Amino acid sequence: MKFVCLLVLSVFLVACQTLTGKTSSIPEWWSAPQEDTSEWLFGLGEGRTLNSANQQALANVAGKLQTNISGSLSSRTQETNISSSNYVDRRMSSEIEKVSLSNFETLKTESISGKVFTLIRVDKQALSDTWLRQYQTIENDFNSLAAKDKAKRFQWWLSAQAFAAKAAEGDRLASLISGLTETPKSSNLTQKLQLLIEKNTPSVKLSGSHPEIDRVIQSDLLAQGLRVGSCSRDCDLSIQYKTSFSSSSLFGESVVKMSFSGTLTDVSGDFSSSHWSVNASSVSGMTAGKKGTLSIATQRIKSEGLWQSFGMETK
Asked: 162 and 148: one domain?
């Protein structure tokens, strides 16, 4: 009887060890990762859920892409005098994973001790095609902008300035494609756009009556690559503003109100205007209160931006 009990106990322990071994064994596809091919990029990931495991696997794939893309950028940015390392750091890392999400499939999964292990693969051609379609859309938009009638030069200039982010995105996509396919795809949309803007910079005329406000407007224009010119007529952009002041007394202080009216005019006529007012009080009288309103007005133009201060809606 004692022998039988020992035998049963031994069988039970062996069975437990066998089950434990099966539960904790790491699958071969995890221990010996699949090598990338000309068609596929493979990635391993683990997490508490399949989704988190897939996210880690995508990060694994992104790391491989990052290495290739960094090399591609290094050669491309040497030609355009852009800092490769800064460009990579700022533009690449987070974007690769986002684009990859629509181009991967889960090949294998295994649940072990509360964790999920996964093997995914990314279709290089599908990913490259996605990026290429996006790039071609941006390139077509750029060509349309370049061919657009520039009779209303300031309006065109605004569109070109707004396109800068798209141009940078196009150059980024070209680098992604080069890194993925290992076939150089040149793109210099940002440089082309800048040259186009420089060639078609609008002339500007400023009409106002306060040096303090004039200086703020001119500083804002310079920051955007525009300069007030000497054109007396037919300027691409005319910036005009008028002010008026009124005062009242309150508890022994002078309360001064400045009313501001600003208008932006191009070759087709007025296209934006704005009317607003600011108030300032001073115990020293209206002159001091007037200076206070001018100071507040200049701060408003600085904080809102020139175009918004003149009634334009900009993105």
From this structure: yes
Q: How many residues does the chain have?
A: 315
Tell me if 282 sits within 8 A of 256, measured CB to CB.
Answer: yes
Full-model pTM: 0.72
- Residues 271, 248 within the same domain: yes
Of 180, 199, 218, which marks where a domain is finished?
199
**Residue 236 burial (C-beta neighbours within 10 Å; 0-12, 13-18, 19+):** buried
Q: Flag whether 20 is in a domain.
A: no
**Structural domain boundaries enclosing 42:** 33-123
Q: What is the pLDDT of residues 241-295, one digit of tens each?
A: 999 999 998 887 889 999 999 999 998 888 899 999 999 988 788 899 999 999 9
Which DSSP letter does residue 103 get?
Answer: G
Are 169 and 188 contained in the same domain? Answer: yes
Q: Are the C-beta atoms of 76 and 186 separated by less than 8 Å? A: yes
Query: CA–CA separation, 35 vs 68, rounded Å?
Result: 16
Contact 137, 187 (CB under 8 A): no
